[in-house]
Design brief:
The protein is α/β, with parallel strands linked by helices. It is 43% helix and 15% strand. It has 2 domains: 4-201 and 284-305, TIM Barrel (Alpha-Beta Barrel); 214-276, no CATH class. The strands form 2 sheets. Strands 1-9-8-6-5-4-3-2 form an 8-stranded parallel beta sheet. Strands 7-11-10 form a 3-stranded antiparallel beta sheet, with helices on one face. α5 (100-108) links the parallel β4 (91-95) and β5. The mean pLDDT is 97. Bound molecules: ligand TUI.
């Protein structure tokens, strides 16, 4: 399955691993890249030197292409961008904002820039700014989300831009991948499926909740604050939604969730932590290695698309 995306990045299979905060560290990213996809280290809100160390550790595990995701709401994003340039990372994805201010420096260094977009307008703007491709991420995704579904967003973005489109949100198997290609995508990005990979450092309690999740077990907090976050329903999400309904201010809500993603991922606190996951969690049933996942997904997608 060679596409403009595999050619652009020099990867064997058109599958990206999402840049999940706290989750997408060196061992997961290296395993995905070693299996032929694009492993991505999430900078999230990590200090720049931690990002540098994660990049170096990943490079000890793989010499294949590796990306970094820049979370644009991070006040440290400038410094992290500096690390990406110094470490000669070949591809950067961005999320939760507009990466226009970084584009010139990345392009001058030959870095491929692939912003996550949640709308056609943003996709067009990114193409004009020089993006090499865009990731069209639907509201089915875990974490920080836009409001349009993958089914509606991907074909509209594919019609609006000439650069390649990577589909994200609600994809966890070969059927989702084949469907994305039918909608005009030339690669897919998956997060929730890789959360439970053998190489993923996510605490076993959190993995277990994803593996046991049903179709309707995610919900979205933060709609009132303008930062909607999809996660598995638990004590934390219920409490957050209750406070939101009562008209709580941003400060109170932020206090509640301070450190809550770390509590879920690292400490395995499935009650008071935030277990970000997409709507497709209900389809994710088995812990497997990244290689097993990628091979299974590719075989299924190729069968459906009539490739060999
Ligand atoms: O970024 C994500 N998903 C994330 S980031 C994250 S870390 C976090 N933790 C706590 C609070 C907030 C964030 C968890 N999940 N996905 C990519 C994505 N980007 N989805 C939607 C967007 C997006 C939204 C608006 C991209 C651009 C955009 O443009 C707005 C603008 O600035 O014009």
């Amino acid at each position: 399955m060679n596409t403009r995306v595999t050619k652009l990045l020099g990867i064997r299979v058109p599958i990206f691993q999402g840049g999940m905060a706290w989750v997408a560290e060196h061992s997961l990213a290296a395993a995905v890249s070693e299996a032929g996809g694009l492993g991505i280290i999430a900078a999230a809100s990590a200090p720049p030197e931690v990002v540098r160390s994660e990049i170096r550790k990943a490079r000890e595990l793989t010499d294949k292409p590796l990306g970094v995701n820049l979370m644009l709401m991070n006040p440290n994003a400038e410094e992290v961008a500096g690390v990406v340039l110094e470490e000669r990372i070949p591809v950067v994805t961005t999320g939760a904002g507009n990466p226009a201010r970084f584009m010139a420096d990345f392009k001058a260094a030959g870095i491929k820039v692939i912003p996550v977009v949640a709308s056609v307008a943003m996709a067009r703007m990114m193409e004009r700014c020089g993006a090499d491709a865009v990731i069209a991420e639907g509201t089915e995704s875990g974490g920080h989300i836009g409001s349009t579904t993958t089914m509606c967003l991907v074909p509209q973005v594919a019609d609006a831009v000439k650069i390649p489109v990577i589909a994200a949100g609600g994809i966890a198997d070969g059927r989702g991948m084949a469907a994305s290609f039918m909608l005009g995508a030339e690669a897919v990005q998956m997060g929730t499926r890789f959360l439970v990979a053998t190489e993923s450092i996510v605490h076993k309690n959190y993995k277990e909740k994803v593996l046991r999740a049903k179709d309707i077990d995610s919900e979205v907090t933060g709609r009132s604050t303008g930062h909607p976050i999809r996660q598995l329903r638990n004590q934390m999400s219920r409490e957050y939604l209750r406070l939101e309904k009562e008209g709580a201010g941003l400060e109170e809500l932020e206090h509640l969730t301070l450190g809550s993603l770390r509590r879920a991922v690292i400490e395995g606190d499935t009650a008071g932590g935030t277990m970000m996951a997409g709507q497709i969690a209900g389809l994710v049933r088995r812990e497997q290695t990244c290689r097993e996942m990628i091979e299974e997904i590719m075989e299924q997608a190729e069968g459906l698309l009539g490739h060999t």
